[in-house]
Amino acid sequence: MGNLRLLLNKPMKIFWVLGVVFVLISRKRVDCFEGLNVTEIVYGEQKNGWSNRPLLVGLTLISSAAAKGAVCLDGSLPGYHLHRGFGSGANSWLVQLEGGGWCDTIRNCVYRKKTRHGSSRYMEKFIPFSGLLSNKRSENPDFYNWNRVKVRYCDGGSFSGDSQHKGAQLYFRGQRIYSAAMEELKSLGMRHANQALLSGCSAGGVASILHCDEFRALFPGHTRVKCLSDAGLFLDAVDVAGQRTMRKLFGNVVRLQAVGPHLPRSCTSRLNPIMCFFPHRLIADVKTPLFLVNAAYDSWQIQASLAPASADPHGNWYGCKLNNAHCSAPQIRFLQGFRGQMLGAIRRFGKFRKNGYFINSCFSHGQTERQDTWFAPGSPHIGNKGIAQSVGNWYFDRAETKIIDCPYPCDRTCHNLVFAHL
């Protein structure tokens, strides 16, 4: 099954890390899991012998950002990693917004500004490009030779806030960072793109939805522009104690970082801005073609919003959260209900031919950034379609791509996540 193993370190009493520190067995650093605070990567061979040594791409800081107030939580310059396209892809651009959870209180954000997700001072100087960012045709058949960019995430609000807290010396400038990054990329040639794709995973997947139409507006009408959200379909779901943990988190983020004015008017004109930070309330109104890649049993949402420790004081969900194979029949029924909510959330969105989705019945979170789940021997499939092929078919209009898996436990191609401790 290609399961990943996440190992516990000392818990920290900060919400965005959810009280856990993990070591992830993977082929690469996976930003989608920063909500679960992956802090170390152990490289290893895949079970079938396939291996990958990803391209390492250097960090560039946006020198013009300071004058625009487009700074990270600690006031440092934001940055990005760019690998230039070549051949037929020299004029095509793929921009990926990095994920990594949120900070929803002053205390959490003060902690976060001393990490790579709050300051460029702590960012890696080189990061691996694999999966959707790979430069190898055998690993990324449709986008390997495009200009591929990863915009680093250092604001804690899905690139969407614009405020500050002088007392704590915190800058919530996600919207400005997004704008400064796009201006920088346009100056590097993106303004002349004939094809462009905005993507993101987890918190970055939320950002790719929030900014999708804004991204479309950067280009002439004749440019093919689309957006991709991986593991970004966070639901306003009731947890195992009957509370709405995710609504509390998102509410705190929206208020603290003054996100409301930057959310789509199509939603805020009729709903409270907090409700409009949930992607499922936005996707049907996004005008630009949008594709969703999501696990129906999203591991992050199970850990953080469906069965967090605060909603499970007796630890009844502990074993189930560690390994889906340990879930009881009633717990599986609860999770099947969550899957049903997810499928309901995309119903109106799916009626538009321009949109697409790949919803597999896996216990995972983020599948486009990892090579083993994006495109590799044994990668997840629904029927005869894998994730990379499905995204490519949709982007290039080769086929209408709306694919939903049968319910757990029918899919034997999943790369389910198995945790050692919480």
Notes on the protein architecture:
GO terms for molecular function: pectin acetylesterase activity. It holds the Pfam family PAE. It is an enzyme of class 3 (hydrolase). Its EC number is 3.1.1.-. The strands form four sheets. The protein has a ten-stranded mixed sheet with strand order 7-4-5-8-6-11-12-13-14-17. It has a four-stranded mixed sheet with strand order 3-2-1-18, with no helix packed on it. It has a two-stranded antiparallel sheet with strand order 9-10. By secondary structure, it is α/β, with parallel strands linked by helices. Residues 1-29 and 37-50 have low confidence and may be disordered. It has a single domain, classed as Alpha/Beta hydrolase fold, catalytic domain (Rossmann fold). It is built from eleven helices and 18 strands. 22% of the residues lie in helices and 19% in strands. The chain is globular and about 55 Å long. It has helices at residues 106-112, 174-187, 203-210, 212-216, 245-256, 265-268, 299-306, 318-322, 329-345, 371-374, 387-395; strands spanning 4-8, 22-25, 38-42, 55-61, 79-83, 92-97, 126-129, 147-151, 163-165, 170-172, 195-201, 224-230, 290-295, 356-360, 381-382, 385-386, 402-404, 417-419.
CATH class: Alpha Beta
Would you identify the regions where 5 or more consecutive residues have pLDDT less than 50? 1-29, 37-50
Topology-level CATH name: Rossmann fold
- Tally of discrete structural domains: 1
Q: What would you call the shape?
A: globular
Q: Strand pairing plus helix content: what structural class?
A: alpha/beta
Keywords: Cell wall, Cell wall biogenesis/degradation, Hydrolase, Secreted
Protein name: Pectin acetylesterase
Family: Belongs to the pectinacetylesterase family.
EC number: 3.1.1.-
